Amino acid sequence: MKAFYQDFKLGILGGGQLGRMLIQSCTNFDVFTAVLDPSDVAPCRETASSFQLGSITDFDTVYNFGKQVDLLTIEIENVNVQALFQLEKEGLAVYPQPRVIDIIQDKRKQKQFYLDHNIPTPDFVLVENRADILAHSGLLPAFNKLGRGGYDGGGVQRLNSIHDIDKAFDAPGVLEQYIDFEREISVIAARNAKGEVAVFPSVECVFHPEYNLVDYLIAPSSASAAVLKQAEAIATKVVESLEIVGLLAVEMFVTKNGEVLVNEVAPRPHNSGHQTINANYTSQYEQHLRAILNLPLGATTIKTPSAMVNLLGADGFSGEARYEGLDELLRIPGVSLYLYGKKFTRPQRKMGHITILDTDLQQLKAKVELVKQVIRVVA
Questions:
Q1: C-beta of residue 283 within 8 angstroms of C-beta of residue 276
Q2: Greatest CA separation found in the chain?
Q3: Does the global pTM surpass 0.90?
Q4: Which of 75, 211, 256, 357 has the fewest C-beta atoms lying within 10 Å of its C-beta?
Q5: 200 with 284: CB under 8 angstroms?
Q6: What is the pLDDT of residue 207?
Q7: Burial profile 217-236: b = 16 or more Cβ within 10 angstroms, e = fewer
Q8: d(CA 26, CA 35)
Q9: CATH 3.90.550.10 for domain 181-378
Q10: Which residues lie closer than 8 Å to 239 by C-beta, 6 or more apart?
Q11: CATH number of 123-177, picked from 3.90.79.10, 3.30.1490.20, 1.10.600.10, 1.25.40.10
Q12: What's the pLDDT tens digit per position in 251-292?
């Protein structure tokens, strides 16, 4: 494989903020990046070595793009996987592998995979429509998740009783038991083609009460040593069972009796790993690059406790983005700002993130609240 030279081309399907931060690691490794994205204002447009405007869900567009690169990866799962299968069949290295993406694209396949490989996950049934959900109403309260298409909190509906059936999706999906959990954590793991696995320490995710998006996270998680050991063992089992090459974010519930259950996974860099750029010896983006290039995986050790706050578009504002409170934000010790290069804001759109470092956990949490107060994305 041609690596570390300008004639080696890494193709990235998707030009969003995850691709943008991956490109920053590629620059350090002197890797040429070619990006395919359907938006002419994608965050990667100005940072990629080359940028192609086009659909990442169209077979011909993805196939023809793949023929121009030496290795193909993704920054979002919603891609044309049949084109990836064909490219792989013709000898192109595609990481994560098309079969892995195919499983994770469909929550029904994903949940069945956990069941088949004895990976702990909440009880569930596969459903085809609302009538099916009504027939399994004994599982309520539960979450109805679309099999395909849900992203960033979309495609998920909580059903408390049969009176909520009209809120359910009338489409193939999953009905998953509601878990009265103590906390939500995420573990990011990586595996290269040699089979080497490296696991980042667990982080604790705090979700926005209305938007079903991560509001902020604390790293490392304050869960017990036994829970953290269990979570990291489960993440390792998932990546080894999938035999994935690349990065995998494993989102988990921790129940009140200390049981750890897999919620969902994402086969790419993830929102729950942004803080690794500042707080760990190896960032999740460099780790993904090391894994897909089949290089030794980097140390995942935390250098200092950290927090990450998602910077979302403020309610009531749509249009060209303006950032209020930057001066106040950047006066806070230990704060680093990452803007995603998105020209336009809208309510709850991910516009950037803020990483906060502090060795004192209480100070760290106080800074999280301060950061949330001082900065706002408006139009």
A1: yes
A2: 60
A3: yes
A4: 256
A5: yes
A6: 83
A7: bbbbbebeeebbebbbebbb
A8: 12
A9: no
A10: 189, 190, 191, 197, 248
A11: 3.30.1490.20
A12: 999 999 999 999 999 999 999 999 999 999 999 999 999 999
Strand partners, 266: 249
Give the model confidence (pLDDT) of 335-359 as tens digits: 999 999 999 999 999 999 999 999 9
- pLDDT tens for 97-121 read 999 999 999 999 999 999 999 999 9
Angstrom distances, CA of residue 48 to CA of 28, 32, 218, 255, 289: 13, 8, 31, 42, 15
pLDDT digits (tens, 9 = 90+) for 161-170: 999 999 999 9
pLDDT at 363 over 60: yes
Q: How far is CA 112 from CA 120, 135, 151, 185, 344, in A?
A: 11, 20, 19, 22, 39
Tokens standing for residue 50: 């080359």
| Residue 56, token pair as written in the block | 């990442």
Contacts of 168 (CB under 8 A, 6+ apart): 130, 133, 144, 157, 159
CA nearest to 172, candidates 140, 125, 208, 213:
125
Name the nearest CA neighbour of 199 among 302, 70, 336: 302
pLDDT of residue 4: 57
- Alpha carbons 216 and 301: distance in angstroms, whole number: 20
Domain range list for the chain: 9-94, 123-177, 181-378
9-94 matches 123-177 in fold? no
Distances (CA, A) of 375 to 193, 309, 323, 327: 42, 11, 7, 9
Q: Mean of the pLDDT values across residues 306-311?
A: 97
Distance between CA 52 and CA 29 in Å, rounded?
A: 22
Which residues, in sequence order, are CB contacts of 42 under 8 Å at separation 6+? Answer: 15, 16, 35, 51
Q: Which two tokens stand for residue 301?
A: 């050790």
